[in-house]
Amino acid sequence: MFWCRKLVRTQTRSPNITPQEWALFVNINSVKQTMKTKLTIVLSFVLLLLVSGAAYTYSNTSETDHHEDEDDVVASYEIYPGDLVDKLEKKENIVLLDVRTLEEHEVIHLEGSLFLPVQELSQKSLTDIGLGVESKDKEIYVYCRSGARSKTAYDIMTSLGYTNVKSVAGGMIHWEEDEYPFTEVGEYVSTQPQSETNASLPAPKITTDRSLHTFGVIAQYGGVVETSFIISNTGDATLVLGDISTSCSCTSAEVENTTVEVGESTKLTVFFDPDFHEEPLDEFKRTVFIQTNDPTTPELEIQVKVDIAEGE
Questions:
Q1: pTM surpassing 0.90?
Q2: Per-residue pLDDT for 181 more than 60?
Q3: Helix (H) or strand (E) holding 44
Q4: Residues whose CB falls within 8 Å of the CB of residue 24, separated by 6 or more in sequence, listed in order
Q5: Are strands 95-98 and 114-115 parallel, antiparallel or unpaired?
Q6: Element (H or E) spanning 272, and its range?
Q7: DSSP secondary structure string, 3-17?
């Protein structure tokens, strides 16, 4: 095949090459050129796919909410505390409404909040505090201590025709746990009468063996940890435990019995996942909220304290 190598170098027909040999060379050279063309097309297509994929990934990343770790846990009616902070920093035209008790409001509340206890919510009471019919399309953010009462407020206000209401996820507990700004203390002058409990009626009384458990330092990849609390009824009527919620979805809880007779107890188990999402550095708390029919403690709070050894 010396003649073939020579033809490759010269790309011209030698007088000593037969027509058959020349035809064979031309055919071989044509096949090589075709293969090069196909390879170029394939490589170009692959490069195009890589570039398109990178652009798509960048686009999706840039549009992802900066609270993406919590995207699977926030409800459609809620707003992340961090997102509300963004709005406050930008001085957006929004309304804050505290639906807790007057005592809770005086201890700490968000700056510039209106105040109206959830049990007093009505169209008249909303109008009295400046949220009448003309405010039904305003951006309103309601909050309580845990997010349970603000969900009730959300339901009432949407049923009244308010179209742009959101509940602050995790309430003031989550807000304080993550040390968000825009809080203040002080009295609120309310024209609405506060409801009073008739202490002469039989009522349950909820107590716990403790209100705080410290896990100490736990490994990030060591799996879910748990602890148990004992809930007792020391009153003189049946205790009913309602919805259970937490200040953050890294924490969950379950109770053995939702009905506790007088003098009896039940067990509450609290779970914490150290690798659920990014957590604050050093030691921090998470809170469990339990709705009850105890008139003096309508919402029981249980806390766990933890310090995550990251990367372990």
A1: no
A2: yes
A3: helix 19-63
A4: 4
A5: parallel
A6: strand 265-272
A7: HHHHHHHH-S--TTS
